[in-house]
Design a protein that fits this description.
4 copies of one chain form a homotetramer. Chain A has 351 residues and is of the alpha/beta class. Chain A is built from 14 helices and 13 strands. Chain A has 2 domains: 94 residues, Aspartate Aminotransferase, domain 1 (Alpha-Beta Complex), CATH 3.90.1150; 240 residues, Aspartate Aminotransferase, domain 2 (3-Layer(aba) Sandwich), CATH 3.40.640.10. The mean pLDDT of chain A is 97.
Chain lengths: 351, 351, 351, 351
């Protein structure tokens, strides 16, 4: 009855397997704050899939919370975090990082990505200034995998960034709110264990990938582990019924559920992309994951919006809009069928 | 098999009615961030039970988050919040209030409560200092209903505190993490609509009262409403799938579920109290709600701990411990039966 | 003996008139924290020269302190300050603004300046976003007069910016660390009373303009006055012997000393500019105040650096450097004579 | 003509020797921000008198600034600083410590002092709590020498506190706003080099001890030295004309000026104390330094206030007030003569 929603990847609840486990365990008695057996088990499963037996794993509720908690646990007060101009922490978190006292030092993004060269220049320049203490000290790197535009860093690009970070002895943090969609992409050339070696800290996003909510923070660099639970509590992120996070990640990390759900989303996104390209629309960004960004004539957009809720990403020009089509683990194939049919029926594009 | 847990009121998941609704609505598509119809409906229900048609209602995930978000939305940087020395924000939130830049100005508590007189003296003294700007300006009052020790302010006490706040033009904030247990207590002499008139902002706790998680913030003072959603987002408290909070509060606020669950808990707590008093143990604090604090000889405590998990609240003396017995909406009557039997069988107390 | 210094405008102590008054008043007994008669008198003088009888005037020690104190007194936690990418608060204050929790929202600068159009677009875009609460709310404008590159806004430009601020009901803050050099410039078309009407808050810089230290903050918008002394104290800016600031500003604000000192500096800067232009060097920025930015061949720079300390402002290209020549109230004419002679003797420029 | 002021120790400007040097050096050209030869020389002199050749020395403008800068350079966000309830950071800095995100964990003071036992209990209790991450972690100790009540820790007391700090691996910070008055006291049993060994960081106060302003921070623990200049700059404490601090400390640290000035003040304070005791007034606190706290009948106080400005420290009872008499390096002997005469002539005390 209502419109079909493709504007984001958190329109539904959670994967049925997860809901079932929540029902089954509902009246169990568990200790609070993430110290229950479900959380313990989920941590063990995550360490295993990452192949980092000594990693610390913590469960948080959402992405902004995870980003702010991790970043403020790492930086000293006069330090800032390097990020792309399109990084989530730079634009869509209401200044949560600044609220914790830190500047986001932005570098111009290309398709959502920044390069090792840019990062190195930023660091080099800071330390070669006359009086570096008059500027914020860049002290960690934040990137998203996939990026906010659905694009992917290659293994080589990540390795190069990792090397610059090592050289300057600063940590690399990978925002993995959509990590599964990235790893499950046909264009990804990196595995979770490989990424776990390159990042000092990252998270396996749950909210957008089959859970009701939840982000599993994995700290592989032992220098960053100290007292992390204090940060969680202080930041308001320590869920009383932590079990809820443990139970969800127990399910996601078993039977390859996490990547299976992601593959489904990517596949549906591929179908949308193909339909749009076939029709002659221009990609705004070449994304191989569950988010597709296309430039649409405003009248075509209007037509589609009669039946679908889409993400409006910006103005391309007076007559065109950048539109996000977003699929998820929950996207129904028949809804994609309908969307494709409606795309095909749009009046011929003249750009 | 495992021990029966009475150490806190968040050992289980959620009330079965709530779980059922979460299952039923799981594959609905909803807009995110609390702007969906479930949240809207739940807000309407809350405004109705509070009898404040113009109140703003926001849903947050947990108590520390709610406290920090509310307090930092009210205070200017040089201002502090008045609280009792035993207030949750003063002792059990890892300095979340200080993290947002504000001092918690503590006043000595009696059974967890502070008085209008104490508050007035604090305010009067500040403004009559020579050079008040050298000290933190007290600018709001935080109390908990019920308190962290399960005790209740009377309607008169709340009215008196409200009056002092009006006189000094500062808001009164009531932490309602366990509000239901308070309102449902046989000793409570105040109703939710009455409390809604006395407080400028408060919350209807969900986490400890039948929900999986959630706190419903009610802002009745319109001066405090501005841009509250920015605060929620910045503080990492804006749940992507806000629907989860809406759905839970829709259930809690219908069919008197919120208070029905609370009455059950209080009744079981009454049974524990009677058993302990009958046995001759001393109350540490006279609580008429779901938390009971008693002074137990260490050997008796040890005996009980063979079968039960209890809350250890502090050392009374070399041989005695202050113990918290906590019931909840989920407490099973047969477990209370067992506990009472085991209390009766404890070796005679010699204090 | 040592090199002559032109790298900044705070190489010397203070104007002799000021030093003399400090000596004369040294053993007077005065009440602390800026409540003494000297401060009171200086405030009165400032209100008079600004022609704002009801202005609040506060004395702070330095510029970073003044900027951070003023900005954090105005913004609510989720709000940010609009500034140019080259604004002092954006680049040279080690993140002092972020440390107080606020994002600096930068707009691309042209010769150090931003326009009313840019500011309006920033504000318009924010409020027309879908879900503005996911981004930092722009809530005040920061500009410098003169800018960090010595350039000046025209009266019209300031009036336009003022209008946008009024339209969106946000304050305009003018950093006047070098205000005198701006007002005393032959190219300035605005007076102090006019500027006082356009800005909601600004400061008359002392440190760089004849005082040992000190910045006189003038708050003309009464909505911004409340409890400002608390902010000063909390920020560590309340000088115990506040008299020192009062005494210095008493002198600066009498007998036109403030502008007289500035005119001297500008005149010497004019002489440097003419010499450099005559020699064929390219201005990096067209500045009509005491700072001159020129592009010099590296070998010429090296030659000059044998006798002079100059400000290195950046790399122009592989063979050229952007150099700052800075004069002040204390610059000796004979030192400018020497510098001009040495410039003239530099080997012919081939660019 | 005006009243003679004994209400604090910052009523006058600076010691004549210092003023003379400021005059002599006024037109010297110096590099800014504390990197000039005067600062370098002053640092060297301080390292020498402290007998810590490898200490880092930084100059700040005032005490609140010094405290906030030092404390925020040491603590991680979830950590707090242990202090006495009467500690300056706990009561008279408008929450500057909380503003930087940290809780001041207060312990009850006895005559302004706290004990090693109290500190150990605080630390022990924190780490033996169930779930220490729910509370602020105590992570450094702040004491003042002399205390805010003029009292002195003995060498043994300081050694004991030092030991507890070592045991828990947290630093000891000594606020030395009046350090000279403490070290110069006849009752002090500790030398500056000894104190430099026991404290991890402390400062030699200038503002109250002969300088116009200034606090010399000495960091002896090398773990605390990293990037301290960033903190100074971010906190608004990096004086542009840093030379002013260097010049003042060059004088203070030569010819035993620092302690000579302090001895004078203490001697005048001794005279006041003797006169008051002889007259039968009760000491509020037994202070052997330049601050004397006495309980005076209100009518006697009123009589004295006709000629003198005194510090009002609090209400003793309905008819008595706690009064602070404060001397300084600048106190004139003849003014003490007058005060003593007036004390003697007060109508006989009946307490």
């Amino acid at each position: 009855m209502g419109k079909i929603q493709f504007q984001c990847d958190y329109n539904e609840g959670c994967a049925p397997q997860i809901m079932q486990r929540l029902v089954e365990t509902n009246l169990e008695q568990n200790i609070g704050y993430g110290e229950d057996p479900h959380c313990e088990h989920a941590r063990e499963l995550i360490r295993k899939v990452c192949q980092v037996p000594e990693a610390d794993v913590h469960f948080l509720v959402g992405g902004t919370q995870a980003n702010a908690t991790i970043i403020s646990s790492i930086l000293r007060p006069y330090q800032g975090v390097i990020a792309s101009t399109t990084g989530h922490i730079a634009v869509h978190e209401t200044g949560a990082i600044e609220h914790s006292g830190h500047k986001v030092l932005t570098l111009p993004a290309t398709n959502g990505k920044i390069t090792a060269e840019q990062i190195e220049k930023c660091l080099f320049d800071h330390y070669h200034e006359d009086g570096p203490e008059h500027a914020v000290q860049p002290a960690m790197v934040y990137i998203s995998y996939p990026t906010e535009y659905g694009t992917l860093y290659t293994k080589q690009e990540l390795t190069d960034i990792h090397k610059v970070c090592r050289e300057y002895q600063i940590p690399l943090f990978v925002d993995g709110a959509r990590l599964g969609y990235g790893l499950a992409s046909k264009e990804s050339d990196i595995t979770l264990p490989e990424l776990s070696k390159l990042a000092d800290v990252f998270y396996l996003g749950g909210t957008k990938q089959g859970a009701l909510f939840g982000e599993a923070v994995v700290i592989t660099n032992s220098a960053l582990k100290r007292d992390f639970r204090y940060f969680i509590k202080q930041g308001g992120g320590m869920l009383a019924k932590g079990r809820l996070l443990g139970i969800q990640y127990e399910e996601l990390m078993q039977n390859d559920l996490y990547l299976t759900l992601a593959r489904h989303a990517n596949k549906q996104a591929d179908r949308i992309r193909e339909a749009l390209l076939k029709k002659g629309y221009k990609m705004a960004v070449p994304s191989p994951t569950n988010q597709q960004f296309f430039v649409l004539p405003n009248d075509h957009l209007k037509k589609l919006e009669e039946k679908y809720v889409l993400g409006i990403w910006g103005v391309a020009d007076a007559n065109h809009t950048i539109v996000r089509f977003c699929t998820s683990w929950a996207t129904k194939e028949e809804n994609i069928d309908k969307l494709i049919k409606d795309i095909q029926e749009l009046q011929e594009v003249k750009q």
